[in-house]
Amino acid sequence: MTRRALCIGINRFRDRDAPPLNGCVNDARNIAALLHGSFGFGSGDIRVLLDAQATRAAFLDGLDWLVGSARPGDQLVLFTSSHGSHIPDVSGDEDDQEDEVLIAHDHDWESTLLIDDEIAQHIVRLPQGASLISLWDTCHSGTLNDAGRAAQAARRAMRRPLATTGYSEGVTDVVGKYLPRPKNLDLRASMAGRRSMEGTPKAARGRRPSSASAAVVETLTLGACRDDETAADASFDGRSAGAFTHALLKSVNDRPDSTWAEVFDRTKREVKRGGFDQTPEIYGPSSLLGAPVFGGRGPAQAAVPVQVVDVSALDRRIGQAEASGQWEQAASALEERGHRVSSDEEKVRTYEHLVSLYRVKLGDERRAVAAAEKLLTAVPAHPGAREYLRAMYAAMGNTAGLAALDAPRPAPAQRAVPAQAPSAQRPQAPAAQRPQPTAATRCAYCGFEMGAGARQCPSCGASAD
Fold first, then answer.
1. Beta-carbon neighbour count of residue 21 at 10 Å?
2. Cα pseudo-dihedral 423, 425, 429, 433, rounded to 10
3. Which of 18, 271, 341, 404 has CB 3.0 to 4.6 Å from 13, enough for a Cys bridge?
4. Do 232 and 174 contact (CB within 8 A), yes or no?
């Protein structure tokens, strides 16, 4: 028997119209740590996808890894914390005529939709005798796992917004995990969804069974809210998390020997106790409802080897400072963020923001140039930074700077594994593929340049020893 888990948390999205969240990365890391430290999941059997790692393709690859290699008796966990949304039903299997949408990092309404039907295609491959626990901390999450729930009456007259007051002490910065679709999108989104389902026999699309039938596969689904509700992302005494995941973790940690039915009851009460107007839901066979949570406790193990910088507090500082027009405070927090994040994408996001703030809000070209130089150091081929610096160096008479821009750039190092290959997302590398830490080297998985003697990649968490 194998215990395996895929944990996904997305705070930042490529689509700038998708509001950033603060607690999703923490949610995924905390669930992974719980599974590893308390329930016997091996570090090599937990895959964690965070922010830019969690593209649509990487999610589906991860689901293939989780379900495709399962054997009878295996116990699997799928955890996702992100934005949710919905589009018009594309396959005629939804009682409320709406397909649920999971918002991946690279979400686009026309080309990279990730709908519940497609998720179900992968989940229904679970072999008989294996079980899957799927946990969804998103809006409209009650039926994201269509392969594992029975039909129910349509009930989404309109999306219920978050409450503005009434939260318990210590709960602040409450935002909704809902991404509204553009008003003119219905037809285009429906056609995009149909394109994503082309070539798939309707019988394999994970259609939900009638209310009298059992689940299609042996799966238990816990969702943060009903299909017509909004799930909350909040700060709990200064620590960002999804309201549902925060309550679930507390419920499990309080009594780790409980059944899923018992944990769900406590989680539901804990969500309401926090003042959140969302109703967690659970679907699945009685055999799993009465089973020990996560298969029962396993031997204690060290922390999961995934190193991800938590910048949620900084992001709140930046947002609050900008909302109040405190541009120097926002710039200071952005500078700190630039030093702390390690991935190219996060550095680009940070320094692009900083250059714009220095130029537009503070009118300080000198500091804008310094920020652009940091951006170019992180991503030498960034065209916007190069164009801006060329114009500024020419205006400043900085001939050395211009010469440096025109100097031939070394070819980028080739990654050992394609960025979206399943093995590229594993938190620990097989021994034969691990880079030797005797000198500065690039991570074999994500390409990040590690310092001499590094024991672990600071970008993706892959072990180097």
1. 25
2. 50
3. 18
4. yes
Q: What is the pLDDT of residue 323?
A: 78
Distance (Å, rounded) from C-alpha 223 to C-alpha 149? 11
Q: What is the 3-state secondary structure (H, E, C) of 36-85?
A: HHHCCCCHHHEEEEEHHHCCHHHHHHHHHHHHHCCCCCCEEEEEEECCEE
Domains of the chain, CATH where assigned: 3-295 (3.40.50.1460), 312-406 (1.25.40), 414-465 (no CATH)
Element (H, E) at 283: strand 281-283
106, two tokens: 């690279």
Residue 226: other Cβ atoms inside 10 A: 21
Contacts of 17 (CB under 8 A, 6+ apart): none
User: What residue ranges in 122-264 does DSSP mark as E strands?
Assistant: 131-137, 171-176, 219-223, 232-236, 239-242
Instruction: Using DSSP, state whether 219 is helix, strand or coil.
Output: strand
| C-beta of residue 145 within 8 angstroms of C-beta of residue 219 | yes
Paired with 9 in beta bridges are 50, 81
pTM of the predicted model as reported, rounded to 2 decimal places: 0.64
Checking phi first, is residue 206 left (phi over 0); if not, alpha (psi -120 to 50) or beta? left
For 428, other C-beta atoms within 10 Å of its C-beta total 20
Q: Give 393-457 as a DSSP string.
A: HHHHT-HHHHHHHHSPPPPPPPPSS-TTSGGGG-SS--GGGPPPTTS-EE-TTT--EEPTT-SB-
Model pLDDT, residue 431: 40
Residues of the chain with pLDDT under 70: 89-97, 140-165, 182-216, 299-310, 312, 409-465
Burial category of 263 from C-beta neighbours within 10 Å (exposed 0-12, middle 13-18, buried 19 and up): buried
How many whole angstroms separate alpha carbon 193 and alpha carbon 242? 28
